[in-house]
Amino acid sequence: PQIKTRTGIIGIERSLREKQKATDDSISMAFQDLKKLMEMAKDMVSISKTISTKIRERQGDITEDETVRFKSYLMSLGIDDPVTRDAYKSSNEYFKQLAKQLANILEEPVKEVGGMMTLTDVYCRVNRARGMELLSPEDLLNASRQLAPLGLPIVLRIFDSGVMVLQIQSHNDIAIVDVIANLIKDRGSLTAEELAQSEGISVLLARERLLVTEKYGKACRDDTIEALRFYPNLFLEGND
Amino acid sequence: MAEVEWPWQYSFPPFYTLQPHTDTRAKQLAAWESLILEYYRVTKQSILDIREAHTSPLFNNTAINRKLPSEVVLLVLEELAKSGNASPLDKNKHRWLVYWHTLEEW
Lengths: 240, 106
Prior knowledge:
The structure holds two protein chains of two kinds. Helix content of chain A is 62%, strand content 10%. Chain A has ten helices and five strands. In chain A, the strands form two sheets. In chain A, strands 1-3-2 form a three-stranded antiparallel β-sheet. In chain A, a hairpin with a 4-residue loop joins strand 4 (219-223) and strand 5 (228-232). By secondary structure, chain B is of the alpha+beta class. In chain B, the strands form two sheets. In chain B, strands 1-5-4 form a three-stranded antiparallel β-sheet. In chain B, strands 2-3 form a two-stranded antiparallel ribbon. In chain B, strand 2 and strand 3 (66-67) form a beta hairpin.
């Protein structure tokens, strides 16, 4: 044991030096541990790759318990290898459970906002409600993809523009189109912003609704610098 | 110069935006074709320069502040060429001859 002299400048300097040395040690320790952890993970990656080639050799559509478990191993390591994985099982057991949970907690809120919610809104809602053990965007997307195969009351829908929404199963495009077409007729013309304001939905969804209406031939567009306005489709209604 | 009788589409703003919906676009282009032919017949013109198209009230409706974009003018003229009602005068397709009646009709 050293004798610690606390007197004078030398004493202060020595204690400072000791403190610095201690932090240096802990930092280098941490990095060494991290390196070892990475090496272990690397081994796991190579092992799981060999397992996946083994699975590939005996191909099949049957969902075996082995592949289910293998998939959950991959998930826990954070290695995503969907290209080789997708042939063996539709998706991970975890996503299925998550999808069921999503359907449970989202059915009511989605109905409240008019039967359709963008995936980003869903992401906000779910993660804010959770607080801990948050979902990653991929988890949410993969779980959402499982909604339809599981026959749950809400399903994932991808618009032509690439916008993804969750909508209730009974959602009916044609009914919406009729409502929107009537609205346009009442107002003369509509932009997405105006529709969003009057209907109390997001601008993104309002835009998609107008585009769907156009796709069904119930509206036509007037694209100018001012705005993209939608008019009743007088071309097809045969006023000439 | 005789007055042109504008069709209802002429004061309908979506008329000046190429419609993405297939059936709608077909109707729109057909309306433009007949409007161009009518306009040229009434004003007794026969040469259309796409680069100068916007000086003509035909493609530029100042009352509702809408212009038909040049690409769409070209598209309409190409449609007219298919039915024999127009033909390009130069390789760049800037200048066009518009026939009030097709050559066969004459």
